[in-house]
# Entry
Amino acid sequence: MKATLITPFRLFRSSVARIEQLSPTFRRVTLVGPELVDFADNGYDQRIKVILPVAGSGRTGFPTTPDWYAAWRALPPEHRSPIRTYTARAVRRDLTDPALSEVDIDFALHGEAGPASRWALNARVGDELALLGPNAAFDGEHGGVEFRPPATATNLLFAGDETAVPAIASILERLPETATGRVLLEVPSAADEIALIAPEGMTIRWLARDGGEPGCRLTPAVMGVFSGTVSTGPADDFEEDDADLWEVPEAVPLGTDPTTVPYAWLAGESGVIKALRRYLVGELGLDRKAVAFMGYWRLGRSEGAEV
# Structure
C-alpha cells in the first residue's frame, strides 16, 4: 500500500459563507468548508494562494494531483485558473464540527482590473473558492510567514500600503502585550481607517493618499522615523537592481544575538519599497538582519497569471 504524501501546503476546497465591507477599499470574505479543519493557523503574515475561477466559467480549472503546478502550467491559458497571493487574515478550525471551519481573507479592492479584485467585488454567498494553504497534518514548518524578527528586537516598525494592511493587522494581533513601536499605513482615503487590535505600546498612524501616487505619504513618514539615525559605516554589499523586491532576514534564534535592535517590516508597491530599502540600508546603513522588505505589487504592471 502506497503511503500518502503529506506536504506543507495542500489544496482546500471552500465556499463563501459571509461577506463584510470593512471600508470602501477593504472587503472581508469568510470561507467555510469541512476541509478547512486541516488549515493550519500560523497567524502573523501567513501567505496563502487563492485559486480563482476561470473567467466566464465561474469554476476553477485547477489540477488536484501532487504535480499540480506542472499540470497547471501545461493548461491552455484560457483554461488556467488565476492564482493570487493573500494573507490568511483569520483561521477558525472547528474540531467538533469540521463543516463549520472558516478562513477569513481581506481583499484590497481596486476595481475590475485584476481577477482577484474582480472576484471579490462580485462574490456571493455560496460561491466556490479553492485555496493553497498550510497543512495542519504536516509535522514541520510550513513556510510563508515572513515576520521573523530577531528574538531581542524591540521598537518595531511596520509600514505598508493598503495591500499590506491585512498582513500587518494579523501580525499586530499576535504580538506580545509588551511590544512597542510604530505602524504606518497608507490607504486611499481616511474612510479606509479600519479598527485594528494591537498592544498599547504600538502607535498606529493612518496616512490617507487622497488621490496621490503610491508612497506619497508612506515614504516621508518612514524617513521621518529614522531622521535621527546616524550611519555607523558604509552599507555592507548593498546593491540595487530592477527585480521585484523580496528581502527577508533569517530569524535569529533566542540568545544568539545579545544586541537589542529595532526591527522593520515594510511591504507595498515594489518601487516604493525599493526606494525605502535604498534609504534605510544604503544611506543609513541599517542592518539587513533587522529589516524585511517585500514588494507586493508593481505600479503600471497588471496582475500576471503566474504564482
Observations:
- The chain has a mean pLDDT of 85.
- Residues 269 and 300 are 10 Å apart (CA to CA).
- The longest helix spans residues 270-283.
